[in-house]
Amino acid sequence: MARARGSALPAVDRLLDHLLAGADGHPLGSELGAWLADSSRFRAFADGHRDKIRKKLRAAGDPESMRDVRAELRAASLLLTDRRIELAFEAHGSGRGGPDFTVSFRGAPAFDLEVTRLRGDPAAATHGGPLLAKLRQLPPSVANVLLIAIEGGRADALDVGPAIRRLRALADAKDEAFFQRRGFEGTRDFYHRFLRLGAVLAWSEDAPNDRVDAWENRSARIPVPGSALAACLAALRGGGA
């Protein structure tokens, strides 16, 4: 990946060299280079956030963490295939545990999008898993969407609706210990944060046509704009405008 100093580099190679810190044989080098070459919009996004992305890639010190970063960047590259969608990266600051992206869509209020990669068997997530972990990060003053990336199978392997119904049943039953073990003060804290969640998307690149299953929280304090959510779903399925 390293180039001789002073050599004239194509824009894609120069940007990729910066993002990967000149590392030869980087595990994301081939894929990331292809995404940058295929999309001028993703290339502009990566260039605008080059230092944040470089830092995130350098901090991914093991294969699992690198695949987490890959999921974020792949989601961004697909969302930007729709020219009506604009993305800001870590708009709340990287050190605050806020959502990965802020999504703007023509004529609709912006919303935050957090990307997390499901590790292990999707069945394990039916007991809370990434849903509960990410609820604690959602800001209160904007609509929030959680995108769960699933590898090696269909997105509908994670039954989001039933998983959330089980969590709500535990909260209704006042199972304080269950939620306290997962970082909440109790069931009231869970519901307070649950109302910040506008939608959950379960997404798998490995499924035909980039399978995406969606669940919307009808009780969310700030709903996700329907037109914006539909555009995101289409883009993740490979059908961006």
Describe what you observe in this structure.
The chain is of the alpha/beta class and 241 residues long. It is built from ten helices and six strands; from the N terminus they run αααααβββαβαααββα. It has helices at 11-19, 29-38, 40-48, 50-59, 63-79, 129-135, 160-172, 176-180, 187-194, 226-236, and strands at residues 85-89, 101-105, 108-117, 143-149, 197-204, 211-216. A six-stranded mixed beta sheet has the order 1-2-3-4-5-6, sandwiched between helices. β2 and β3 form a beta hairpin. α2 packs across α3 (40-48) and α7 packs antiparallel against α9 (187-194). It is globular. Residues 1-8 have low confidence and may be disordered.
SS-based class: alpha/beta
- In sequence order, what are the helices and strands, one letter per element? HHHHHEEEHEHHHEEH
Question: Taking Cα atoms only, what radius of gyration do you get, to the nearest Å?
Answer: 19 Å
Question: How many helices?
Answer: 10
Number of strands: 6
Q: Note the gap between the termini.
A: 33 Å
Helical content stands at: 40-55%
Task: Report strand order across the widest sheet.
Answer: 1-2-3-4-5-6
How much β-strand is present in the residues? 15-25%
Sum this structure up briefly.
With 241 residues, this protein is of the alpha/beta class.
